[in-house]
Amino acid sequence: MKILLATQKPFSSVAVNQLKELVKAKHELILLEKYREQSDLENAVKDVDALIVRSDKVTAEVVNAAANLKIVVRAGAGYDNVDLQSCSDRKIVVMNTPGQNSNAVAELSMGLMIFLARNTFLPGTGSELKGKKLGIHAYGNVGKSVAGIAKGFGMEVSAFDPFVDDSVMIGDGVTPLKSVNELYSGNDIISINIPAISSTIKSINRDILDNLKENVILINTARKEIIDEVDLLNAMRRNTGIKYGADVMPDCHEKMKEFGARYFATPKKMGAETEEANVNAAVAALNQIIDFFETGNERFRVNK
Fold first, then answer.
1. Which SS3 state, helix, strand or coil, does residue 228 take?
2. What is the pTM for the complete model shown?
3. Same fold for the domain at 2-100+273-295 and the one at 102-265?
4. 3-state DSSP helix/strand/coil percent for the chain, to nearest 5?
5. Which CATH number fits domain 102-265: 3.30.1240.10, 3.40.50.720, 3.30.450.20, 1.10.287.80?
6. What residues contact 37, with CB distance under 8 A and at least 6 apart?
7. Could you tell me the end-to-end alpha-carbon distance of the chain, in angstroms, rounded to an integer?
8. Is 213 left (phi over 0), alpha (psi -120 to 50) or beta?
9. E strand or H helix at 17
10. Which residues lie below 8 Å from residue 11, measured CB to CB, with a gap of 6+?
11. What is the pLDDT of residues 205-226, one digit of tens each?
């Protein structure tokens, strides 16, 4: 089988070498790295059986160009960069690799918390994380990892996730909350980890932002689309204690610069940019493809 690894933002050489070892004589691994145009991806998929991507856009045009494609694996948790309907129409299986990048993202979340709590390391008095109340929005793999690290810092951790049983959080020493408003109004720092789906797009809006505590820190390592950026700008102007850190540069980045040390966004999405996460996600993606071809295993399928 021909397996295409298509990555505008390449995996580390360590990860790629491990993939080459895994395929060996059974499959053919083709690399498309640092490509500039979407048409490059459309041309590369024409005769491949499987596709591994990171944040690359698997559009309807890509799907239609791939005559032999049977499976797409997004090396990471989110999969909003893949046109699921187009894949389903062609009976192409789409999978993600949940949990493989979670520790890397969680560590970045903590780094952003420290960076903003210390006024982006500019002169002046900052604050410590110890004793602060941390609220986690979505208690999946990343949320659990954030909670574990935060407890080591001596933080009081709570979480809201209607899809996770309270007993799971309680077992982790995390206080389960009953509503989004309770989460956002009652914590000193918020770690936002929700996916970008129809029900969450711009869901962090004025209704929530107007109820934030003073001197609150918002950390978004999910997707920019979940924030109503107009409402965020207005909230930060009204509540001059709000700080916002993101691993996803908002569209209103230039306007956000007015807040100085109260705002920081990574130039590119960096959550999974560690060698360990590179290896974990890449190897998981390839193993899922190999298992799919050998046994039909669709465990991490995300489309119908």
1. coil
2. 0.91
3. yes
4. 40, 20, 40
5. 3.40.50.720
6. none
7. 23
8. beta
9. helix 13-23
10. 5, 19, 54, 75, 278, 281, 282
11. 999 999 999 999 999 999 999 9
